[in-house]
Amino acid sequence: MTNDVSALHLVLSGDAALFAIVRLSLYVSLSAVVLAALIGIPLGAWIALTRFPGRQGVIVLLNALMGLPPVVVGLAVYLALSRSGPLGAFGLLFTPSAMIVAQTVLVMPIIAALTRQTIEDLWLEYRDELTAMNLGPLGRVAALIWDARFSLVTALLAGFGRAAAEVGAIMIVGGNIEGFTRTMTTAIALETSKGDLPLAVGLGLVLIVIVIAVNALAWSVRRAGERLAG
Question: What is the C-alpha separation between 119 and 121, in angstroms, rounded?
Fold first, then answer.
């Protein structure tokens, strides 16, 4: 992308480099949300339905992790994936996979904490019915997750918003390599540092449109699902 063109011109002209950046941004963010959901939703539901020593401390910690500093997460993932780190043999550093790992670590606490609150509220409402059905712990978790499936869309969207806006962590572990690990947010940071504010603003507007479009699509799917479920 050159300095004498705007983001709008790049979009209208179908610029291949811009659309590659957009594709990578969506791939990394959506992959991180899926992985974080696979971990965070069962974890949040388990914490909501299980009583164990130190549970309140775990809840406080989980809520605190929602505000994890991205650069600290990026540094931790960098150390883990570096050649001398425990996962260095996989060669993931400065690849999209490393960026997905970093975003998953950032997003998972958000999804887990919001899931815990949602499932706990439902448990208080349906505790008598589920107890009468004589469901085991796993049965209760599965039943309440299914019942809360539409409400959990909000948790997933919150996670996607965090992932889509991330720049610090993925800059550290991805390196912002043109054509390979450059995303919308890292491209905006780069263009701003170069002083190309019009292009940076244009890219920012493109990112906002993408985030709104994803949220609108998820909301539409949720509403359609609610209508079908009655």
Answer: 5
- Residue 186's nearest CA partner among 211, 160, 164, 209 is 164
CATH classification at residue 23: 1.10.3720.10
- Domain span at residue 15? 7-229
- Rounded to a whole number, what is the largest CA-CA distance in the chain? 69
What are the pLDDT digits (tens) for 121-174? 988 888 878 778 877 778 888 889 988 888 899 899 999 999 999 999 999 999
- pTM here? 0.88
- Cβ burial, residue 170 (10 Å; 0-12/13-18/19+): buried
Domain presence at residue 19: yes
The count of domains in the chain is 1
CA angle 50, 53, 57 (to 5 degrees): 90
